[in-house]
Amino acid sequence: MTKPYIFITRKCSEQQLKALYEIADVEMWPEEEAPCPREILVEKAKMADGLLTMLSDSIDQELLDCATNLKVVANLAVGFDNIDIKYAEAKGIVVCNTPDILTDTTADLTFGLLLSTARRLIEAADYVKNNQWKSWGPLLLAGYDVHHKTIGIVGMGKIGQALAKRATGFEMDILYHNRSRNTEAEEILGARYCSLDELLQTSDFVVCLTPLTNDTKELFNKISFQKMKSTAIFINASRGAVVNERDLYEALIDKEIAGAGLDVFTKEPISADHPLVGLPNVVALPHIGSASIETRLSMVELCAANMYAVLTGMEPKTRVKVK
Ligand code: 8YV
Question: In this protein, which residues make up the domain named D-isomer specific 2-hydroxyacid dehydrogenase catalytic (predicted)?
């Protein structure tokens, strides 16, 4: 019997993929950072029983129609907005993601981004690196306090809850808005559910952690930024397209809000001439929410375990369910 064929769209650690090499012919795109071009992905998908994909790979109807042998797509992310999951399910293709294992790592990064933006850490480090530190003044590189302030979390899923837990250490008041109530966050962390409007109007830090869906596309726009305090800081660690970037830019230029910390952008990667990157009150990161060595290796391992399960007739650990 011929072995199943698996294509992996980015160079990943082989050690974490060991289980797959035992049961399948595994081919991996050799570049760690440069994405596999679309035409190559389509060609490989035509033969593949399994695909291990990244957020930058669009697993759309065109690709799924070509992939006549495909049984499983394992996405190296908790999000799966790059995959047409309904279409995959209709074709009997199992889609898996990597939830839970990246929750704490992503919450750490999100809180770090909040702190860096509020206290101007990147600007201050550059100040020293660029040899600008010549004297001292009472307001030199002064930022905003984080402790005892109000954090408003939009999207109180697992990562939102882990962020709220970190906010309790800074004795912050926690507001949240979500499709459904999170009783654990309310009872254990003291988070208070409120309308999006109330959250925008009263939070010192508005943090976006909601997945990208038709309902959340450009949820943050001119009107939302106008509702926020002029001293508020906006943080986005979910998906760029949840924000209208032009409206955010204008809100920052017009001083409708005080700053933004962004780990995600509508079209990634961005270049240094992206309008938001040029603003002094913006901290821009290259989508590194889950990027710790430990977590990224665990994510690869979980993708491998999920593919192994599907290709050997078992139920994968973390299958994406179409709602
Ligand atoms: C990805 C992410 O893991 O998990 C997600 O949904 O956004 C990140 O943690 C990363 O972009 C690799 O695809």
Answer: 7-320
